[in-house]
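Severity: low
Component: inverse-folding endpoint
Summary: output formatting inconsistent between runs
Steps to reproduce: submit the following structure tokens with default settings.
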């Protein structure tokens, strides 16, 4: 059985896992109490469940209501103690000052638009954003009179300057791009946003703990905590983090006005999962890199879209701006194969689950051809594409499973000839 780790150069392996190893010790104490004197504390903070908060007087209730921009306990739909702990932890990891928890990753993508955009204003979105983010822009924002333009994720500064309008208020990037994995020049986007008075929002779900959004010019960072922080495929939760008070107050107001808050049980599960994110991802990222390098050598594969590899658009920005890599990447198959060929191969795998989402401990595979909307040319248009998330299974077993599938795909193509 092939050991894919033998394909990984030692220096590249160290480069991919370094950020996770550096992050791991920081995760252990976040959001936890420390014992004081003779009083003991639980290792995991309890999840306080509640809607109504009782006060000693009307005056006390009114005073608490003035603390909505902090961690004041006001009403369950405005935050809970376990939620505030998780918000503090996420803000620390992202390098921000405040975080707002919401019920899903999509809610985290949508909330900044509700907070910062108005009818008649213009938003510039990367063409590679998460599909539901694009759907929200098309189905909701346009209906409310917000203008939308998509830009190529590999656009140059000059090209972007040509797309910015006097009423551009938001530049929304996702780096790496959803499904196509282009790494963007976020510092350049940050400079443009600063010059034009726009806010730069970055979906940093892939890069949590590995990319510092605010140090690279972002005003707002979006996280689907469902993924790596939760890590066990059993919660739906998101977060929006900021580093300036001017960004925090409208964001917090929008969350309250739209009723966007995460439940205490999801917060507790995510805070617990966060403790092991570094060690989980160090292992998973190493295996993912090995599987990606193995796939790169297969004749059926035209291109591997893994930010740590030169075959991925924007690889140079990953080298410059990230401290490690994630366990999610894409594959473009040779154009001689059809989407049906790829789907049959995927259906025959035994170790890879077929399903949406990623970030858990289990390996997943998902066909992406036919499920991607693009206005600009994309690397995913060169042949059938799929996305792989590598879990904690042994790399040898994963490549053996993929080898059987790819061998079968090639044999079927030779038997039946071109479509």
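Observed output (run 2 of 3):
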């Amino acid at each position: 059985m092939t050991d894919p780790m033998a394909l990984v150069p030692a220096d590249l392996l160290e480069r991919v896992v370094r950020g996770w190893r550096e992050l791991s010790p920081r995760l252990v104490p976040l959001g936890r109490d420390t014992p004081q004197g003779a009083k003991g504390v639980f290792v995991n903070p309890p999840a306080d469940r509640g809607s109504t908060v009782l006060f000693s007087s009307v005056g006390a209730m009114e005073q608490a209501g003035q603390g909505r921009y902090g961690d004041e306990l006001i009403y369950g739909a405005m935050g809970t103690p376990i939620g505030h702990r998780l918000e503090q932890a996420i803000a620390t990891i992202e390098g921000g000052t405040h975080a707002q928890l919401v019920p899903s990753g999509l809610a985290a993508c949508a909330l900044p638009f509700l907070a910062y955009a108005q009818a008649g204003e213009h938003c510039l979105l990367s063409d590679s954003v998460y599909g539901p983010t694009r759907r929200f822009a098309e189905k909701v924002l346009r209906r409310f009179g917000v203008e939308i333009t998509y830009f190529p994720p590999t656009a140059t500064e000059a090209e972007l300057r040509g797309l910015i309008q006097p009423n551009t208020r938001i530049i929304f990037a996702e780096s790496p791009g959803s499904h196509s994995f282009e790494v963007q020049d976020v510092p350049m986007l940050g400079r443009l946003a600063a010059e034009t008075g726009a806010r730069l929002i970055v979906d940093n779900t892939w890069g949590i703990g590995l990319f510092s959004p605010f140090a690279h010019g972002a005003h707002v960072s979006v996280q689907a905590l469902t993924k790596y922080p939760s890590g066990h495929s059993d919660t739906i939760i998101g977060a929006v983090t900021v580093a300036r008070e001017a960004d925090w107050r409208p964001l917090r107001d929008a969350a309250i006005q739209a009723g966007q808050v995460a439940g205490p049980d999801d917060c507790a599960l995510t805070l617990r999962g966060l403790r092991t994110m570094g060690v989980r991802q160090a292992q998973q990222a190493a295996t993912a890199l090995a599987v990606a390098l193995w796939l790169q050598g297969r004749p059926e594969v035209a291109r591997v879209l893994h930010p740590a590899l030169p075959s991925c658009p924007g690889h140079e920005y990953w080298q410059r701006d990230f401290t490690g890599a994630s366990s999610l990447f894409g594959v473009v198959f040779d154009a001689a194969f059809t989407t049906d060929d790829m789907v049959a191969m995927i259906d025959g795998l035994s170790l890879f689950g077929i399903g949406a989402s990623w970030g858990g401990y289990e390996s997943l595979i998902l066909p992406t051809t036919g499920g991607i909307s693009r206005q600009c040319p994309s690397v995913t248009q060169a042949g059938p594409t799929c996305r792989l998330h590598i879990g904690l299974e042994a790399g040898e077993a994963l490549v053996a499973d993929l080898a059987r599938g790819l061998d079968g795909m090639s044999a079927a193509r030779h038997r039946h000839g071109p479509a």
